[in-house]
Amino acid sequence: MEIINHNIDSGKPFNFGRTSSDYAKYRDIYPPVFYQKIVDRGLCADGQRVLDLGTGTGVLPRNMYRFGAQWTAVDISENQIQQAKKLAFKENMKIDFLTCATEDIYFADKTFDVITACQCFWYFNHDVVMSKLAKILKDNGKLLILYMAWLPFEDNIAGQSEQLVLKYNPVWSGAGETRKPIYIPDVYKQYFELIDHEEYDLNVHFTRESWHGRMKACRGVGASLSEAELSSWDKEHKKLLYKIAPSEFDVLHYAALAVLKKRG
User: Over the stretch 1-13, which tens digit does the pLDDT of each residue have?
Assistant: First the structure.
């Protein structure tokens, strides 16, 4: 489904369904520490009922399935959900995947112990979503917001790759990331209180192929460029990587999380 948000990429349309095959193959990249920090906080484990918003290809529920939570996951893109179902089926995982915009979710009151939103929080209409999330969370339920991004001003490969994206998509607003806490809009304060947050560095390992695939599966490339633009970017980025990157390398990222507790 095509999304237009004037606060993102100056309103340029994007559709992650266009890049679902690359997304499924190349965006399952979070290191073990990313998941361990969640479990260490007593979240998404041990029989808890968890709803994952904007699940994409189900990266979060599939990787955390082993910790014992019961997962439901939604995404606005049918293509993304189809990929998620295929990947979960291969691993014999019982995850309930639904095609649905976060603004349109409907579950019974006090259904979930935890709601997660990984790499998607800024896409929501928060005025619509907040009251819904509070209603479907159990008393003292938690909203967990997660994010990870490369650091282009400190990592040369990430920085040069990002500049090439901007050459083809100059309105892409995903560029120029620096370390910072996750921004929580004021509307959340009516329903939640922020009880924990953390920001930390981590290195993510890639080959030239997997980094190229990761970049292609981002919003600024595969989800929004025309076929002609994507073809040109593809050739130029591969050429760039052979010039600046060894066959395998780490890219410096930072990760952030925020835990919000439902108000009583």
Answer: 788 888 899 999 9
